[in-house]
Structure formats: C-alpha cells, structure tokens
Amino acid sequence: MTRIQLRIYTDPPQVEVFLNLKQPNGEEYRVAAVVDTGAQITLLPARLMNFVEYRIVEQGSVTVEQAGIARQSFSATEAMVRLFLEDTTGARTSEIETHVWFANTGAILLGFQDVLDQAALFVDMRANIGWIERD
To answer: Model pTM greater than 0.85?
Structure first.
C-alpha cells in the first residue's frame, strides 16, 4: 500500500492532498484538494475542464442537492478523470479513474466515490499528522 502524507491545517481546520490530474497531452495538472469526508464525489472547478482530460458520463449534467447546514443545490457536469494522489515527499498512488463533478466553484474537494472509499484514511489533528493509504 502507498501511504500519502496529508497536509494538516488548524486555522481553519482542514486536511489537504495533492491531485495530479491527467491532461490530454499525457502530462499532469497539479492542484491541492481538501479531503472532504462528507463529499460523495470529488468536486472540481469547471475551469479545469480546459486543462484536464475527462469523459462525460451518460448522465452528463446533474443537480447536486447538498445536505448539512447550507442546504443548497448547484448544477454540475459529471465526468470521469484520471488522477494520482501525491504528497510533498513525492510519494504517489497508482492511477485512479474517478467520477468528478465539474461545477462553478473555486473549491477543490476530494470525495469518497472511487477514491476515499477504496482507501484507509487517518487524521490526528492534535498531533498534526494524517495520511491516506491506498493500493
């Protein structure tokens, strides 16, 4: 199993990991993503559709109903992308093909489907350590 070290922040409290998204030319587009254990699917800004390789899924356009405090909904394009998780030491996972939602947002959130649901996630906020382990 590959262990990817997470970046831990306390103010505001959040956990981040690097995503290397495959581009049409075979190179990678690197972004930092917040690990969101409440996100069903990884969320990416729609502007990234200009830079990364993706395949629209059959459903295509979806309306996402958010739960929690916000109780908002937003439109998104559902697609498949290929990515690697990476940390600051250069450790990286094997390639992951995952569902994503491209939406009008600046947020980049790593969600469960195809990624976190196939990994071990450990976070200790008091000790400022965390990792994702995945084959």
So the answer is: yes
